[in-house]
Amino acid sequence: MTLLQLNFLNKHFGAVAALDGVHLTATSGSRTAIVGPSGCGKTTLLRLIAGFETPDAGEILLDGHRIADADAQVPAHLRNIGIVAQDGCLFPHLSVVDNIGFGLKAERAVKLARASELLDMVGLDQAMLARKPDQLSGGQQQRVALARALARKPRLMLLDEPFSALDTGLRAATRKAVTEVLSTAGITTILVTHDQGEALAFADQLAVMRGGRFVQVGHPREVYERPVDAATAVFLGEAVLLPAVVTAGRAQTPLGVLAVEDLEFRGQTTVLLRPEQISVRRVEGGEGDGVITDLVFGGSTCNVCLTLGGTEAFSFRIDVPSRDIRSAGDRVAIGVDGPAHIFP
């Protein structure tokens, strides 16, 4: 069942088109991640859904009811939408229990019971109920912010870069905890993030935004493995882009002949390989498919520049396990697992 539907939303700030015909649907209980470069319109879209901005054109439907269009909109406080921002936005002068219960119209005992229940849900100790925000770590503050957003049992949760200020390890742990809480509660969620890995791990629907539009929407694995264009491929992760001539399901490339999934395409194009499809093995003597012309050691992996031989040299960079790669100048054999993706 569709909970949220965005129909051809437009929003301008002066001469700048922040959103240009955005269309999106999210089913009940689903998790959608929106990714894209800075300035592409992600936060503007969340602000329209939350009710902080009014669309110039198009409409927003929540549970089948129109909550915003160019002529009228339901006020933000009546939409029953929760939102967690990048810094949590906790009230510094209030305790955890008062932050969580801030929007509840109930007696103190009821607020305390609800705050206690939500603190358990987000994995925090009951002893924190009396603390102020400055007595909490960054990850704890974000969990309290989530608990506050959950207190009024929202139909929809909006997460605007909620983990970006956290350290790497804490970020992963907090994201996992938040995902579990939202999944258990069955709350439809929209996440905006600059972290592609975070989006891929969090969502069951991924929307890639560029220039105020969604250039591709789909299951995260589908979008990652079969991006609509090279710009989307590169944005979502490491990508090896190879010039190719394709005939009958085979692509002639600088890496040799590669299989492709499209058996109908004929002609010159670009094909995509993801780094996990490529294996690199050091070889002795003058054998091998190419040579490492630059190497940056990074612990478990090395970022290397591989230059292939042939009549026209072709180079690309890739992260490879460092156990067998020693230095620039090493000759390597290169293997490819699985078909390449064609950009028609």
TrEMBL record:
GO molecular function: ABC-type ferric iron transporter activity; ATP binding; ATP hydrolysis activity
Entry GO CC: ATP-binding cassette (ABC) transporter complex
InterPro entries attached to this UniProt entry: AAA+_ATPase, ABC_SmlMolc_Importer, ABC_transporter-like_ATP-bd, ABC_transporter-like_CS, ABC_transpr_FbpC, Mo/tungstate-bd_C_term_dom, P-loop_NTPase, Transp-assoc_OB_typ2
Protein's UniProt keywords contain Kinase: no
A Pfam family this chain is assigned to: ABC_tran
GO BP annotations listed: quaternary ammonium group transport
Residue ranges constituting the ABC transporter domain according to the UniProt record: 4-236
Entry keywords, A to Z: ATP-binding, Cell membrane, Ion transport, Iron, Iron transport, Membrane, Nucleotide-binding, Transport
PANTHER family to which the protein is assigned, alphabetical: SPERMIDINE/PUTRESCINE IMPORT ATP-BINDING PROTEIN POTA, SPERMIDINE_PUTRESCINE IMPORT ATP-BINDING PROTEIN POTA
Family label: Belongs to the ABC transporter superfamily.
Name of protein: ABC transporter ATP-binding protein
Species of origin: Rhizobium deserti
